[in-house]
Amino acid sequence: MKAKFKKPDSLRDVSTHYCPGCGHGIVHRLVSEVVDELNLRERIVGVAPVGCAVIAYDYWDFDCSEAAHGRALAVATGIKRSRPDLTVFTYQGDGDLASIGLAETVHAANRGENLTCIFMNNAIYGMTGGQMAPTSLTGQKTITTPLGRDPQQGDGFPLKITEMLALLPKVVYAERRCVCSPPEVIKTKKAIKRGFLNQIENKGFSIIEVLSQCPTVWRKTPSESVKWVKEEMAKAFPLGRIK
Fold first, then answer.
1. Which of 113, 115, 95 is nearest to 46 (CA)?
2. What is the pLDDT along the chain (243 residues), one digit of tens a residue?
3. Which domains does the chain have, with CATH numbers?
4. In angstroms, rounded to a whole number, what is the distance separating the alpha carbons of residues 27 and 5?
5. Which residues pair with 206 in a beta bridge?
6. How far apart are CA 147 and CA 175, in angstroms?
7. CB neighbour class for 85 (10 Å; exposed up to 12, middle 13-18, buried from 19)
8. Which has the closest alpha carbon to 20: 189, 213, 211, 181?
9. Exposed/middle/buried for 202, CB within 10 Å: 0-12, 13-18, 19+?
10. For 84-111, how does the pLDDT look when each residue is reduced to its tens digit (9 = 90+)?
11. Is 126 helix (H, G, I), strand (E, B) or coil?
């Protein structure tokens, strides 16, 4: 009988270090599936900086580079300009991309670097203990906002980084998806594939934001986390193609 489902060739057969219910593992698989389908395995480089996905190279069976915290798009720019024949992408969390790495993010997008950026948004600093992130929701409780994020007390509002980047002329594609249901997982895969195809076709900068569950730091069960993404995160960060 013909196989209908199998492990992607670009995904290593190893145990995961991610917490139960985390969205990273799902997106790792989606990236691997797209790499296989586009036959990119020998012509792709992933760049992962500091964050929960800092050891993404343990899971992907293709070339990867690690970057300092926030500097993934700077490293990716150097790789792509040196080897324009390669497909180069970054895989970054919200604290990395939208806080310490915000300057690199904005300027790479503004220059229209021919790169693909996968932006994992779980609305919190996951690896470092649960501090408020640039994308933490208004009212969200974190260890640095124990009473809830309050813009009136100097906490600011959650940054809609994908909408911000979409305003830049050389950003050719910006879409936000999630992995909180099978239909949404399928849409997320299509968005990632579109981001890679844009680069292959030399169209310019693409960003795919993925709303991701973080049960451990949110202090929720996996099912509660999925519900929170659907009912709370998606209100603040609407799903769909932005540009």
1. 115
2. 777 788 899 999 999 999 999 999 999 999 999 999 999 999 999 999 888 888 899 999 999 999 999 999 999 999 999 999 999 999 999 989 999 999 999 999 999 999 999 999 999 988 888 889 999 999 999 999 999 999 999 999 999 999 999 999 999 999 999 999 999 999 999 999 999 999 999 999 999 999 999 999 999 999 999 999 999 999 999 999 999
3. 24-241 (3.40.50.970)
4. 16
5. 116, 173
6. 32
7. exposed
8. 213
9. exposed
10. 999 999 999 998 999 999 999 999 999 9
11. coil
Paired tokens of 129: 């203990």
Residue type at position 146: P
Q: Looking at the DSSP assignment, which residues form a beta bridge with residue 48?
A: 66
For 226, phi then psi, to 5°, come to -60, -45
What is the signed CA dihedral for 110, 27, 49, 132, rounded to 10 degrees?
80
| Strand 171-178 with 240-241, pairing | antiparallel
| pLDDT for res 189 | 98
Q: How many other CB atoms are there within 10 angstroms of residue 84's CB atom? A: 10
The token pair at 196 is 């890679």
Question: Of all helices (H) and strands (E), which one includes residue 205?
Answer: strand 205-211
Question: What digits encode the pLDDT tens for the residues 68-82?
Answer: 999 999 999 999 999
- Write the CA distances from 125 to 46, 87, 99, integer angstroms: 22, 28, 10
Q: How far is CA 23 from CA 38, 178, 226, in A?
A: 23, 9, 10
C-alpha span between 16 and 202 (Å, rounded): 34
